Amino acid sequence: MTYQIVTPTHRPKIAGQTGPVVPQSVRGFYRRLKWGLLVMCLCVYYVLPFLRWNRGASQPDQAILFDLADVRFYLFGIEARAQELIYLTGLLVLATVILVLMNAVAGRIWCGFFCPQTIWSDLFLAVERFFEGDRREQLIARGKPMTVKRAIRLVAKHGVWLAIAAATGGAFVLYFADAPTLLTELFTGKASALAYGITASLTFTTYALAGFAREKVCTFMCPWPRLQGAIWDGDALTVNYRDPRGEPRMSAKKAELARVHFLPAGDCVDCNACVTVCPMGIDIRNGPSIACINCGLCVDACDTTMGKLGRDRGLIDYESWRNIERERKGEQRQPVKVIRPKTLGLAAAALVLIAVMSVHFATRSPLALTVIHDRNPIAVRLSDGTARNSYEVRISNLETQPAVFELHVTAGAPLSFATPGLEPSLDGAPLVIDVPGDDMRKLRVSVTGPSTLSGDIQFTITRPASGEEVSKTDRFHQP
């Protein structure tokens, strides 16, 4: 098996095509599927910020919100805080596992149907065809002098592109503040400079990448094509050309004549329909390519041609590479197994990650305790022979309401501890500490113990109202 890297110099030469790829429109099952997923994804992206979710008094009622002011993330009934970065790490790992699983099932299916670059490029191409016509009309117009009518169409096209790009950037910032309020502020000029800056930045990138870069992003800028080559699976359903059936290529009339004389003749009539509809500008008949995004448009184009000729569909189809090799050897095609050890292992890994994160999230404590031992000096000998160690203790109240906590310090020998501004603890009595909601209180705690005390000591905070507690262990040193 060989891979090809499609660049402008390697792109198949098609009559009338120069410069950027101008794909031909196509009809068929996969094109309809892509339109349906495009509409669904755009609706999700633009509508989600406006969904409401009741979280109670003094809480934001936006269903999905990245609250930068309080450094919190809200997802319907889930609330994540800045201290819980581990969940973001877990989600990134989970996304990677799912992406590899999708690749093992159907190659770059994400790229062809769900990737934002693909979705917005499809949308921009639809706008382009509306104003400039299909591929043939565009290529003919490019070879002629500019006219007033064409100039008006170009201005209108770019105006709509910019409107879509601005809506994309504007919708993104709505996830970071109350959407209806921020939307009003954006239109009335009352939004912050940061909101306008992010909107302008995403407007420019969407306009440039979906309007002009298109296939270059997928081939040269995105790292996934290179990773795809490393995790390529010969049992995955990918778009492939059945060359044993299609070769040698010739016109339908020549193929009929060749078959009459018992000469080899393939089903491919070399119409180039599969190439002209490809948004990447590649020829799938040359074999697997790292530029192929598995969108299936060439399948629709080839099936249309085969239907017109009265031949069976599937000359280009979603097929495993192992079956293509079997056909080359004259062996029987085997059913493609989606459920196999690799996919089962990846699915199990994804489920385990989801289960672990869900359990950890559901059982998390609203309290957080950090203990840091002072290093200069690490310990001090007092005049009565006892030793004193100092610690920085940080108590975080992760709930929205203020709370009262008790701080206990215990060890294998009697000790006392104190912090400036609070009564010292004697005979094991706790320190009582008030911590506002969504806040952290930092204390300097001095722990005094006998000369025989050395080793681990335990700091524990409890919330008497609920009985919740969190403990941390540190070392007590002698001078």
The domain count comes to 3
Uncertain spans, ≥5 residues at pLDDT below 50?
1-18
Q: How much helix, percentage-wise, in residues?
A: 40-55%
- By secondary-structure content and strand pairing, the structural class works out as alpha+beta
How would a textbook summarize the main sheet? 5 strands, antiparallel
By oligomeric state, this entry counts as single chain
Strand content: 15-25%
GO cellular component, one term: plasma membrane
Domain 4Fe-4S ferredoxin-type: 258-287
InterPro entries: 4Fe4S_Fe-S-bd, 4Fe4S_Fe_S_CS, Cyt_c_oxidase_cbb3_FixG, Electron_Trans/Redox, FixG_C, Ig-like_fold
Organism: Roseibium suaedae
Structural commentary:
By secondary structure, the chain is of the alpha+beta class. It folds into three domains: 1-21 and 88-110 and 219-364, no CATH class; 39-87 and 111-218, no CATH class; 367-476, Immunoglobulin-like. 42% of the residues lie in helices and 18% in strands. The chain contains 16 helices and 14 strands. It has helices at residues 29-47, 85-106, 109-113, 116-132, 135-142, 148-173, 179-188, 193-213, 215-221, 224-230, 243-246, 252-260, 273-276, 297-309, 321-328, 341-362, and strands at residues 64-67, 72-75, 78-81, 238-241, 316-319, 367-373, 380-381, 387-397, 403-410, 416-418, 431-435, 439-449, 455-463, 468-476. The strands form four sheets. Strands 6, 7, 8, 10 and 12 form a five-stranded antiparallel sheet that branches. Strands 11-9-13-14 form a four-stranded antiparallel sheet, with no helix packed on it. β13 and β14 form a beta hairpin.
